[in-house]
Fold this protein.
Amino acid sequence: MILSLAWKNIWRNKPRSLIVVFAVAVGLFGGLFSSAIFIGMVDQRLSDAIRNEVSNLQIHHPGFLSNREIADTIPGAQNVLRQLRKDPRIKAVSERIKIIAMASTASGGAGVKINGVRPENEMKVTALQMKIADTSGSWFTSGRKNTIVVGQKLAEKLKLKLRSRVILSFQSVNGDIVYGAFRVEGIYKTYNTSFDETNVFVRNDDLAALAGLQSQQFHEILVSLYNDNTTDQVVDSVRNTFPHLETMGWKELMPDLGLMAEYTNAWLYIILVIILLALSFGIINTMMMAVLERTREIGMLRAVGMSGKKVFLMIMSETTFLSLTGTLAGIIITVPVVHYFQLHGLNVLMFAKGFEDIGFAAMIYPRLDADSYAGLIALVMLAALLSSVGPSRRALRLRPVEAIRTL
Amino acid sequence: MEIISLKNLTKTYREDSIEVTAVSDITLSFAEGEFTAIVGPSGSGKTTLLNLIGGLDAPTSGEIVVNGTNLARLSSSQLTDFRLWNVGFVFQAYNLIPVLTARENIEFIMHLQNKPVHERRKRASELLQAVGLADRAKSRPSKLSGGQQQRVAVARALAPRPRFILADEPTANLDSHSAENLLEMMEKLNREENITFIFSTHDPRVMKKARRIITLEDGKVLRDEQMHK
Ligand SMILES: Nc1ncnc2c1ncn2[C@@H]1O[C@H](COP(=O)(O)OP(=O)(O)O)[C@@H](O)[C@H]1O
Ligand SMILES: [Mg+2]
């Protein structure tokens, strides 16, 4: 009964309550939508990074990542590959030779990472063939030897076109500086320009010959999974099977992104807490006014035997209902908007360049989970609870005799 | 049977170092089934006296015993309970909760007492009938006349069957016709159901319905007369 009374009470001053509801709704919409955009950006960045760059997990010789020593190849790579291909959670694996090199043309030079790959394996893992436009060549389909696929950013920098020649130079296994001439067969473009600028792809047979490596020597194995969520499990089992190798999941390979992914929810809650804090002042103020206006009525209620506890509960419920109504309104606005853009994408083309420089796509697909909405409601309840303390206490401080005297 | 006894009751207000003795050394007792008017000019202490009896205010000195309970012994939450279970209040105005219907207002106190729903319903219907507002059960106070509102207030006060009803100038805001109606209704409830009413007024026409008239002046009892009818 106190609850239904509280609900009726908040609609006594409709315009005032509606303003609060509106403010809460708009405030939360802003917080939710901006968080959804942020989460969508991180999602996309993450899925691109996994899909096109690092895959779910990578295996190296333990010293390779820190020293980049060309001789630190994965011992028993053939066996490792065979074992991995048996695991039903694993979709594909790609073995790579990785060498830091200098790429030069007539127009200049640039430091690059050469990825020596088996094109048919690599395409199942990083799918870079999908990132080559129709007019930008192909992914090792020409059948020629010594061809190379480069990123668009690097192509621009070195003024490379299809069939341009580029010289790669690096230190071979013997310590000699070796030179190799490669013809550009394809130019790819991901959302991550710095990736595009530094990663070039060649056939591993071509590269092995140049570097003086045996045909089954690799530096890196990329593993892509059917389900991203099983990454940690698979990392564990690979570690157990091959304790002498270094196995890392994408979170360790990209610690900055890993952290971002872990904290998207924290980010959401921080924003919401700040917004709710601001809104609380409005809510407190409104409730203070409501209590003040109803001095006589509350005095009467106390006089006829309504306990302080029940008055407190009534004011608290009013505060909570008011906030929750605003919250539901906010959610009702947010859900379809987020859903729409989740399907159609939010185009931030005007910032595209800046975004792609840091690895984010210009097309954002905002996302919010049911959990986030549930968390929001819990937060609002808490905020309402705290906001109601002041007004409720004011209601309790009223002495019924005096409140009635003002008749 | 005596239900209220006041002994040397005094209430002094102090405001800006000026002392006002609103009730001064009053000794009185009230019996079950009374229909008593407390009269006197404005400022004579009627409201203060009723508030003291109802446990809304504490005396400066003296004793209030209701059904053998000395109110001075009760904590403030016990006093709230005391009011809830023993006293029916009717104020001059603002008796009702504006967002509730007449019926809901009448059920309100029974709600506070956690009375079961069927009992509340039955009692409210009974009382709506008794105060002649059966057809206005679903009206909110703002849709009722002043006299009708006060009838609902009386019904609300009666609903939990309190030991007595304290009504502070219940007719002050009513026209004389409605005032008389309300008094007749109260008198009928007193006569037929032996409900104790103590009400204050300074309206002579209301006064003359009472069976006992206590006249106050400057916080003191000037006269205490039984009217024989
Ligand atoms: N809260 C208060 N503070 C100071 N003086 C008061 C207060 N309440 C009542 N009084 C004074 O006490 C006296 C009696 O008031 P009251 O009981 O309201 O009389 P009545 O109801 O007969 O008009 C008046 O002089 C009034 O001014
Ligand atoms: Mg008075």
Q: What stands out?
A: The first helix of chain A runs from residue 2 to 10. Chain A touches chain B through 23 residues (CB under 8 Å).
